[in-house]
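Our preliminary data section would be incomplete without showing what the modeling component actually yields. Below, a chain of 250 amino acids is followed by its predicted structure, encoded as C-alpha cells that our downstream tools consume directly.
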Amino acid sequence: MSSLADIQARFAAGVLSGSESPLADLADDGRQRARFEVYRNNTHASILEVLADAFPTVQTLLGERLFTRLGTAFIRNAPSRSNHLLDYGADLAGFIAVSEPLADRPWLADVARLDWARNAAYAAADAVPVDPAVLQGLTPEALMELRLALLPSAAVIASDWPVHAIWMNAAAVATDGVQPRREQVLVARPGMQVETLPLHVAEHALLATLDAGGSLGEAALAAQEADPSFDLMTSFAGHLSGGLFTARVP
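Predicted structure:
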C-alpha cells in the first residue's frame, strides 16, 4: 500500500508534468479525469501568471503564445521547490540559456536575469543605508579598508548584449536585429521604487567588487583597471548619497 506521502508526490508530479499517473490513486466516480484536468489547468494557469508577472520583458519579446510554451516547458522540467509561489522563476534564465528552440535569441537569458533581478528587488528585505556623514571622519587609509555591502535588493548584471536597451524598448526589438554590445546594469530598490540603471564598465567593477566582499580600496583598483579615466569619487559619492550601501555583516 502506498503511503500518503507517496500518493501526494505522484499527485504533484502528475499536476506539473502532464502525467495521468495519480488517477489510479483516486477514488473514481467516473468524473475524476475531468476534475483532475480542471485542477491541472488551473494550476498551470496560476503559475504561468506568476511567471508572466516576473518576466514581463521576456513575455513581450516572445509574445504570449511562445511565452506560454516556454513557461509550460519550464513548469514541467523545473517544478517549484519553495512553498512561496512568488519565489518561482529564479532558474528561468538558466533554462532559457540551454533551450534549443530559443538558440536564435542568445541575449534572452540575460534579459530574463534582468527581469528576475527587478522582480526579486520588490520583495527583498529593507536595510538601513550607510550615513555618508559616518565616512567623513575616516582617514584615507581606513576608508580604503572599508567593506560595504549593497542593499539586499541590489543586483549588478554584466552582459555581452545590450540588455538595458532591450529592456527599455522591448516592444520594438526585432529578433534578428540585436547585435552584441556589452552592457552593465544596476537594479536596486533604495526607496519604494525599483531602479534599473545602466552602468559604466568601471562603475560595474566597483560595485561588483564591493558586492563580492572586497574592500573599497580593492573596488577602486578594479574600477581603475577597467578604465583609468573613471571618476571614482563622483560615482561612489553618488551611490552613497543615493542609499545604495549598507553596513556589511561580518
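Residues 13 and 19 are 7 Å apart (CA to CA). The beta strands are 148-150, 155-159, 183-188, 195-199, 245-247. Preliminary results of this kind motivate Aim 1 of the renewal.
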